[in-house]
Amino acid sequence: MTRATLNQASGAKFSRIMGLGAVRGELVVTNDDIAGPIDSSDEWIRQRTGIVTRRRAPEGVDVIDLSEQAAREAIENAGLQPSDIDAVILSTVTWFHQTPAGAAVLADRLGVTPAAAWDISAACAGYAYGIGQADALVRAGTARHVLVVGAEKMSDFIDPTDRSISFLLGDGAGAAVVGPSDFPGIGPTVWGSDGSKAQAVRQTHSWQEFKADPELEWPTLRQDGQSVFKWASFQMGPVAQRALDAAGVTADQIQAFVPHQANMRIIDQIIKQLKLPESVAVGRDIADTGNTSAASIPLATERLLREGQVSSGDLSLQIGFGGGLVYAAQVVVLP
Amino acid sequence: MAYTESEILEGLAEIVSEETGLPTDSVQLDKSFTDDLDIDSLSMMTIVTLAEEKFSVRIPDDEVKNLATVGDAVSFINNAQA
User: Fold this and answer.
1) Residue range A281-309: average pLDDT?
2) Closest Cα partner for A67 from A130, A141, A160, A137?
């Protein structure tokens, strides 16, 4: 008996980001507000990180609340209805449930059911991972309109006395709708991981350890700041360059560079490594918003667009990198 | 080809000067990176990384805290060349 031949899905030739949405935590937290417990100062924090304020969400607001707001904005800006969305990807490390995935809860909240929905855990690279997945889904015909959300309520995952990372962190959500396109709108994703450095950005202890030992505090985030600085500053430039090469464009042909907003000095060093021309607008939203992990790239992109530093149709090189360690970069056409 | 200690000092002084804006002749063997040259931990990592590239040596992250003075760094790089 001969085997029946299957249909295989095929999708759009090209994909693009159709619309963006952005939400920052409503509280503005200054360096003076947080300097006391870490025996620091406004001047020290500015000089080491470039952060002037970070935005945080109040008690009672969770990562799904932030995601919903950003997602509704992105769907509207894409000129779509919630019912047009057939896949939802949520990148977050601050949805405190092993199951169900936050994406399923978000999909229901948005009324996009029965869209496929899943979370990805790729920390600060999560949005760029999500865009890479969405691009592949649309071109493979597995989905037509994919909602990608990078959202974090990092303030639920910090220790005010921690000098390694907590003082950098903010809360927010950025969303993008990826759909079919008449032109190439998302360049190849260059991505990877290095689990040999899994401890460089880490949780103080696991949930199981927390459960087993009543003396332990709620787990929070830590990083080996100097090692992460070195890795991000000097190894992400070549990754970003590979994303440019894969897209077939050169640094002088892009209008924006939006790296993950980890530290202004990392951003400056990557720019140096890439030899970016001064004509390229650089995402520097960290100064006011802080490091919002998976949300930082869409938030910084939204700001460049809102402030008129770049326009719809411009090319933007984006790169996410963080705990894992993981990284992902791609060149996109701005919506 | 191995670099001599004076070549390492000269190269390191150029890297420090580029990172901090300090004149190269202020980078002397007995100078402390933090106390004399006012170099913070992130600048130190930048200097270390550029020195690794320039002198083709590896300076482990854990080792950086032991490099208190310019002389410590020159010695480490010199030994690491072997």
Assistant:
1) 97
2) A130
pLDDT at A320 over 90: yes
Confidence of residue A226 (pLDDT cuts 50, 70, 90): confident
ipTM above 0.90, yes or no: no
Residues 6+ apart with CB under 8 A from A147: A71, A74, A75, A85, A87, A88, A89, A110, A112, A115, A175, A176, A177
Burial A70-108 (b: 16+ CB within 10 A, else e): bbbbbbebbebebebbbbbbbbbbbbeeeeebbbbbbbb
Q: Print the domain residue range for B65.
A: 5-80
Task: Summarize the confidence of residues B1-29 as an average pLDDT.
Answer: 92
CATH of the domain at A144: 3.40.47.10
- Domain range spanning residue A139? 14-181
Q: Which residues numbered 207-226 in A keep a CB inside 8 Å of some CB on B?
A: 224-226
Q: How many domains does chain A have?
A: 2
Domains contained in chain B, number: 1
Is B48 at the interface with chain A, CB within 8 A? yes
Active-site entry in B25, B30, B40, B72: B40
Find the CATH number of the domain harbouring B19: 1.10.1200.10
Residue B64 has its nearest CB partner, among A226, A233, A269, at A226
Domain shared by A175 and A197, yes or no: no
B42 interfacial to chain A (CB closer than 8 Å): yes
pLDDT tens track for A20-33: 999 999 999 999 99
- pLDDT band with cut points at 50, 70 and 90 for residue B2: confident
- Report the distance separating Cα A111 and Cα A102, nearest Å: 14
B49 vs A234: CB contact, 8 Å cut-off? yes
Q: Would you call A311 an interface residue with chain B, using a CB distance cutoff of 8 Å?
A: no
Chain B residues in contact with A229 by the CB 8 A cut-off are: 42, 45
The answer to whether residue A8 is domain-embedded is no
